[in-house]
Design brief:
This protein is elongated. Helix 1 packs across helix 2, helix 2 runs antiparallel to helix 5 and helix 4 packs across helix 5. By secondary structure, it is mainly α.
């Protein structure tokens, strides 16, 4: 992966994590700043990794029914990643979740063409692999988020007299 792609993935992960953590921090006003920054950075790495794994997971799913593995390797390029980064930025304070979802579908459709060409699968089969990979990774990330929230101690608000 090129350094530009890594930076874009981290920025998209940071934006996505900030959008997910902002409502949590509002609901738990006593969370220390250091803990909030730690959660934000950890969330950025997890979200960025999830974005990075999306084409690889789709590639792996597409290769399952094939007798010989396809040549090449799925990679993110800046032109394919830019809409995903834009979708993550839109999710920042959870503005426009429907538009965010539509952009993710658009990015998935953009990944489908190269995957179908490289594997020899039909466009719809490749689209199914991309969709299953995206949904599975999304559910896994949501499970991690819920686990972290459940394990996080509730903030004790200060009592002022």
């Amino acid at each position: 992966m090129s350094p530009v792609v890594v930076v874009m993935l981290l920025l998209a992960g940071f934006s996505e994590a900030a959008g997910r953590l902002t409502p949590l921090m509002v609901r738990r006003p006593g969370v220390p700043r250091k803990r909030a920054v730690g959660l934000l950075l950890a969330g950025a790495v997890v979200e960025g990794a999830m974005f990075a794994l999306w084409p690889l997971t789709a590639w792996t799913l597409a290769a399952l029914p094939l007798s010989t593995p396809p040549d090449g390797e799925p990679v993110w390029t800046p032109d394919r990643l830019a809409p995903l980064m834009f979708a993550a930025v839109l999710a920042f304070p959870l503005l426009g979740p429907l538009f965010h979802a539509l952009l993710c579908v658009g990015v998935g459709a953009a990944l489908t063409g190269p995957l179908a060409t490289a594997t020899g699968l039909g466009w719809w089969s490749a689209a199914g692999c991309v969709a299953v990979a995206g949904v599975t990774l999304g559910l896994a990330a949501e499970g991690v988020r819920r686990l972290v929230v459940r394990r996080s101690p509730a903030a004790n608000p200060e009592v002022t007299a």
